[in-house]
Specification:
The complex is a heterodimer of chains A (about 260) and B (about 450).
Chain A lengths: L13 E12 L2 E12 L3 E5 L6 H8 L7 E6 L2 E2 L4 H10 E4 L11 H11 L5 H14 L15 H13 L5 E5 L7 H16 L3 E5 L3 H7 L2 E6 L2 E6 L1 H6 L4 H10 L2
Helix pairs in contact in A: 3-4, 3-5, 4-5, 5-6
Chain B lengths: L23 H10 L2 H27 L8 H5 L6 H13 L8 H18 L6 H21 L9 H5 L10 E2 L2 E2 H24 L4 H23 L14 H27 L4 H16 L2 H15 L8 H26 L3 H9 L4 H16 L1 H14 L11 H8 L10 H31 L7
Antiparallel strand pairs in B: 1-2
Classes of the chains: A alpha/beta (about 260), B mainly alpha (about 450).
Chain lengths: ~260, ~450
């Protein structure tokens, strides 16, 4: 697996390409000169201290935040400010949030069929078939007619994954998917994510679950102060981190 | 001595809660009489009820006159004069709507009840058709029934703004003026062409633009046709409408218009586009800053001074527009409160799924926001229902206005006429306002069911 970003990569195999991306929140320089290329079917795990810009980085990939300088190209379409490129990017990119963000006024099934019906134009029957398929994949088809608040945190997060998958995304973003969960529920969500990784989904995961990272990541990205400090293969990353900041970070979280 | 370690060998069984130790009566008595304060408050309440209730019952029922034909029958008793209400019932309900034509408002009432009832019952089928009939067809039918229709439409856009009068004086057919309808046809074609041109220039879908304007204009054409056609109904001027009919028309129009308009204003006020935002803020703050009486007065007596001589609007219509816009401004602020309570994550999740602004609002944010502010919305509805009586100051006689007008009748001039009339008005207002409040409570419970764990 390539460690360095090269300019000779086959561009048809690139899922996400970020070059020289900068972003500011007011005066605060939150992303500084981000260069990151994610190949199709690649699994990237991003870690780093809080406030290092991890979430902002992946939120830029589906346009929830807009970058102010540099280029972000999703499956060959550049994310510019206009709606058309945004729609194209969001068609290809699914996202799972730390706080699940399920729609509490809709049942689990309706959560999953909403976008396929209203965005992709599926019929209700088709959308429900697809939704049940993915609910089975995340192992909660029996909860389809319940409302999100009737489910446990782990179940809600699995519904959120199914909801994103129902749009048939090519890339999945996970923004600290297990950070809001009770310890007993983390595994059920990670198991679903591992399965997804094994099926070849392109995944960019912000997470501090180092066991998960070791198991599925193709590359680890370590961020601090709005910059990418180190990109490395997991084995190397954990065994022989090269940057002093990475070493310090790992010594803090691994005991 | 307690053991330092413990391992459970059998699970504790789940048991029902223990029964209430005290009888209901005992608990009731305790809550009413427990402390000196509770005790004195209970006594005070009983005293107030004992003071108010018996005279009220005596006046309304026991001492009341139940039959008669004039003031002499009522003078004998100290209680309410119900024959007065019976004699004036028509006036209270319809104002001076001609007696022979009162089947028309009756039909409007009946249609309204028939269409509204299934709309309010969540389990009733065909909600979409039902809503379309109630919000789309019913106002038009009511308008034609109540006014009599057969309006003489003269000019549309080309005629008014370009003085285009190619086929003037050609004549009428079935109450339709040919000059108007050719004007309408060509104006419509011009608008559709313009929309197509703009769409082409903006590189948007020309087909969609043509379809959208075409459908809108066709709907407008149907409205004009219904209003223009001669159905053989006697025209009844709005000046002779009155009573409960007017109360309902003003209240229902206000309620039906203010909700969607309030939603749009609330969304506009939170818009990222400065022009839209400031326009909405200006609108809301203007209408909230002016008393309803001023609005009605302005619309009725001062607006005509600023409009061209040949542009006239019906007095009732002006009051309706005033009330609706006034109510919409208040509604907008209530709904904005609900919108603010929806977490940003909901917007983000919808955006990440590819839902655009209107679908995010319509499918995700508004259903939750409106549910949250049902109490505020219904508060506004009830306030509006009672405020309708202010149209009195622009010489429109609603229920209360007609009741007050009827006090002047010498045939029914008794000491109790005034009280009887107001008791009747109070009862009607109470039934409607209390009904709205109870229905809202029911919907609120239903809608918030998703928030509970079961």
């Amino acid at each position: 697996m390539n460690v360095e970003v090269s300019n000779t990569v086959d561009h048809t195999l690139v899922a996400v390409e970020m070059t020289g991306v900068h972003k500011w929140f007011g005066q605060f320089h939150v992303l500084k000169d981000i260069d990151l290329t994610v190949m199709r079917k690649e699994r990237i795990v991003i870690c780093g201290p809080s406030g290092s810009g991890k979430s902002t980085l992946i939120r830029c990939i589906n346009g929830l935040e807009q970058h102010q300088r540099g280029r972000i190209v999703i499956n060959g379409t550049e994310l510019t400010g206009d709606t058309r490129s945004l729609d194209a990017a969001r068609r290809d990119v699914g996202m799972v949030f730390q706080q699940f963000n399920l729609f509490p006024h809709l049942t689990v099934l309706e959560n999953c069929t909403l976008a396929p019906i209203w965005v992709s134009g599926l019929s209700q029957a088709e959308a429900e078939m697809r939704a049940m398929h993915y609910l089975e994949r995340v192992r909660i088809p029996e909860q389809a007619y319940k409302y999100p608040l009737q489910l446990s945190g782990g179940q809600q997060q699995r519904v959120a994954i199914a909801r994103a998958l129902c749009m048939n995304p090519k890339i999945m973003l996970f923004d600290e998917p297990t950070s809001a969960l009770d310890p007993e529920m983390i595994k059920e969500v990670l198991d679903v994510m591992i399965e997804l990784a094994q099926e070849g989904m392109t995944m960019i995961v912000v997470s501090h679950e180092m066991g998960f990272a070791r198991e599925v990541a193709d590359r680890m990205v370590f961020m601090d102060g709005g910059q990418i400090v180190e990109i490395n293969e997991p084995n190397e990353f954990f065994a022989r981190p090269r940057h002093e900041r990475t070493k310090l970070f790992l010594s803090q979280i691994l005991r | 001595m307690t053991a330092r370690t413990f391992v459970r060998t059998a699970f504790a069984p789940t048991e029902p809660p223990p029964p209430e130790a005290d009888s209901t009566a005992l608990r009731f008595a305790r809550s009413l009489l427990a402390t000196p304060l509770n005790f004195s408050l209970t006594l005070l309440s009983i005293a107030v009820i004992a003071l108010v209730l018996p005279p009220l019952i005596r006046f309304l029922f026991l001492d009341a006159t139940w039959s008669g034909t004039g003031r002499d029958d009522c003078l004998a008793n100290a209680g309410a004069c119900w024959p007065f209400v019976r004699a004036k019932f028509g006036q209270f309900m319809y104002g001076f709507y001609p007696a022979g034509e009162r089947w028309r408002p009756n039909l409007v009432f009946a249609f309204g009840a028939l269409l509204l009832a299934p709309l309010l019952i969540p389990a009733a089928p065909f909600k979409r058709t039902n809503a379309l009939l109630f919000f789309g067809v019913y106002p038009l039918v009511s308008f034609v029934l109540l006014t009599g229709g057969d309006f003489d439409l003269q000019k549309f856009l080309l005629g008014r703004f370009l003085q285009w009068n190619a086929v003037a004086g050609v004549g009428f057919a079935a109450g339709l003026r040919w000059a108007f309808w050719t004007d309408f046809l060509f104006s419509a074609l011009a608008i559709v062409a313009l929309a197509a041109l703009i769409a082409a220039l903006l590189r948007a879908s020309v087909v969609a633009a043509v379809a959208a304007t075409g459908i809108l204009l066709a709907a407008l054409g149907i409205v004009f046709l219904a209003v223009d056609l001669d159905f053989g109904l006697t025209p009844v001027e709005t000046r002779s409408w009155g009573g409960f009919l007017v109360t309902l028309i003003v209240a229902v129009t206000g309620i039906v218009v203010s909700l969607p308009l309030g939603v749009l204003l609330a969304l506009g006020r939170r818009s990222r586009m400065p022009v839209v935002r400031y326009a909405c803020i200006l609108f809301i703050e203007f209408w909230r800053g002016v008393p309803l009486i001023t609005v009605l007065f302005f619309a009725t007596y001062m607006l005509p001074l600023f409009l061209p001589r040949d542009v006239t609007f019906d007095t009732l219509l002006r009051a309706l527009v005033g009330v609706a816009l006034f109510a919409a401004a208040y509604m907008a602020e209530v709904i904005r409160g609900g919108l603010q309570a929806i977490p940003r994550g909901q917007h983000e999740a919808a955006a990440a799924l590819g839902l655009g602004y209107w679908r995010t609002m319509g499918l995700v944010v508004l259903p939750q926001a409106l549910t949250l502010v049902i109490p505020g919305i219904v508060n506004n509805f009830i306030g509006l229902f009672k405020d309708t009586t202010l149209v009195l100051i622009v010489a429109i006689f609603d229920l209360l206005g007609q009741i007050r007008a009827s006090f002047a009748d010498p045939n029914w001039a008794t000491p109790v006429t005034l009280y009887t009339g107001f008791a009747f008005a109070g009862a009607i207002y109470f039934v409607f306002c209390f009904g709205m409040s109870r229905y809202a409570l029911y919907i609120e419970r239903r809608a918030s069911a998703y928030g509970r764990r079961s």
